[in-house]
Amino acid sequence: MPELPEVETTKRGIEPYLLNKKFIDCWYSGLSLRFPFQTKKFQLIQNQKIEKIDRIAKYIVMRFANKNRLVIHLGMTGNLRIAEEISHLKHDHIVLALDDSTHLIYNDSRRFGLVIILTEGESFNMLDNNAEDPFGPEMTPNHFYKIIKNRTSTIKSILLNNKIISGIGNIYASEVLFQSHISPFRLGKDMNLADCKLVIDNSKKVLKRAIKSGGTTLKDYYNAEAKPGYFKIKLKVYDRENQKCKVCDELVLRVSQNNRSTFYCPNCQKS
């Protein structure tokens, strides 16, 4: 699943091709994504200059001169690419033609992503209800501690709860906890302020490294230029079950938490 680094990498990849351009036409495969693409609403952004592109949690938000927005979530397997020619690859679902004869193409094999158009001020709960990501100005160690100090869920589950902290995702949660020497089984109520500082600081470090490397490639992720990410080769524990820990040589273990795989070192992350 594309997480914050993959979404940020995609956003940065498409930005130079889209800013100050206009969408003039669209094509839709007709196959349902998480929500059907509403072609009738395309007129709300048609021939409107793209003034800004933001990333909010794991959403890409394009803002137009008339204040309407195009919101994209890559779901499990979605990706965006810029192309001069329309080739209609397998699983291409939406093609947005630009006024410079290039195209923004949304591809998604499992179709769990979404591409929606919102008018100025229109609410969308899935976007609006996300907490800040680790880079947000309010996501300080003290703020994080106050939110989790009475919680009986595990810190791993907390890091995957977008209503508490957004954008980390399963891969990077394992990496952050390893870097912080914190067990994925520790409960939120057992985290002190120093622990929370470690988690927030290491979240930023891990995510920054992943963004710099172009995201993580495991199965489906490719960036806007159709190139794979390279952070997988730098992962310390994720997807390294029964391999030696890179710090202490103990074997990395995998367990299931809330139906998600967690990878950790039982020696480096004892508590």
Tally of DSSP helical segments:
6
Q: Are there runs of 5+ residues with pLDDT below 50, and where?
A: none
Question: Which term fits the overall shape?
Answer: elongated
- For the record, the count of structural domains works out to 2
Strand content bin? 15-25%
Give a short synopsis of this structure.
With 271 residues, the chain is an alpha+beta fold.
Topology:
Blueprint: H1 4-18, E1 23-28, E2 50-56, E3 59-64, E4 69-73, E5 78-83, E6 92-98, E7 103-108, E8 114-118, H2 125-128, H3 141-148, H4 155-159, H5 169-180, H6 193-212, E9 253-257, E10 260-264
Antiparallel strand pairs: 1-6, 2-3, 3-4, 4-8, 5-7, 6-7, 9-10
Helix pairs in contact: 1-6, 3-6, 5-6
Describe the protein's architecture and organization:
It is a single chain. The protein has 271 residues and is α+β, with helices and mostly antiparallel strands. The chain folds into two domains: 4-128, MutM-like, N-terminal (N-terminal domain of MutM-like DNA repair proteins, Alpha-Beta Barrel); 141-264, Orthogonal Bundle (Helicase, Ruva Protein, domain 3), CATH 1.10.8. Helix content is 24%, strand content 21%. A hairpin with a 4-residue loop joins strand 3 and strand 4. The longest helix has 20 residues, at 193-212. The two termini are 28 Å apart.
